[in-house]
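Hi everyone,

Forwarding the result from last night's run.
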Amino acid sequence: MKSEVEKKVTLLYLMLVILIDFMGMAMVVVIFPKLLLHSTTLLSSLWVYEDRIKIMGVLLAIYPLGQIIGASIFGKLSDNWGRKELLLITIMGTSFSFMLSAFSIEISSLTLLLVSRLVTGLFAGNVAIAQASLLDISTPETRAQNISYSQIAMGSAYIVGPVLGGWLTQAFPFCTLSTPFWIFSLALGALLVVTIFLYKETLSEAKSTSIDPFEFAQQIVGGFANKKLRNVFIVWLLFVSGWWLFESFMPAFLSIKFGYDTVQIGNLLAFNGALYASFQFIVVQRIAKYMNPTLMVIYSSIFAALSIMALSFVVAPWQLYLAMSVFVMAMGFSIPGIVTFISNNVDDASQGQVMGIVNSIQAVSTVLVMLLGGYLNSININISVIGGGLLVLISWLMFTVTNFNRVGQLKIVQEQL
């Protein structure tokens, strides 16, 4: 049994794993627009814009594609072999894949970069292992609090990662677009050393479970077959698709429309991350205690949709930051509102299963819209913005219509309270 001090050290370590992993993901999103759209480092000058934006969509999509498979495989393997052994494997794999990405940029090999991003996605299962380890050291009383720490780590990664990634491309005369990948590979090497000496196994009893890399597909089919949850899963599919169609190509949108470089894009993404984290902590946590998740979604999702579409009309930086602020705050209510609504409609014994379905739908929709977004943006860079906003708007409309009667009942209850 771990002591309280050991649990705290383990908690800090697991937060570090999640922080570094998501920093790497956020960093790449900032670098790709310059690497693929405005540079001949990887693609020669013979590549036209339409083809460049398409290949960027493929490179963005191949990471979550690998992640879908890797998370399910490595997560279950850690139940069989232990958390520490699998964390060592996935951290080494991630470090190697970032080194491979850096090398592919150095030698201008698009094929090698595609392979490296797929491998990075496969080894991103270390987040699933870290989250499982987090639950290992949690009690029923501390579980929610510990999970919130993982969310803080994720949010912090989107504050630091974009800024660091943009800065490392031009901080010193020797910096190039491959520099952030080399640095990040070294950071993962340091994390590997920390894992060897400081992290102690948290799995108390190994299990024997079968490994099915396509379990996510079974989860999605099962979710949409559930008559009670079918409508809200369709809402979630539309919502996530619109969200990621916009989010994935936002750096390219900023680069093309506003001429932003990697540092400016990183600053905006960091602003979004800081606003989201602080808004969650200061506002959402307090209001959510008294506001039903149904009303949270209905009152906020429409603002998320309209603020996304408004970006296609902005012409000044202050308008850009204003629209992004509305979007971030609206998403601060929308995301926890929809997830909580889904959670409230199943019993306690089914929470793990239904959250698996939620994550599987999000992962698959992310891959699809990234691939589709590359083709849409080759036509016009505004399509991902307008299309993303429309999908979120349709999800809001469907959720509102299917829960219209419930809204009236909730208002009556709130008035009585």
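Residues 409-417 have pLDDT under 50 and may be disordered.

Cheers,
N.
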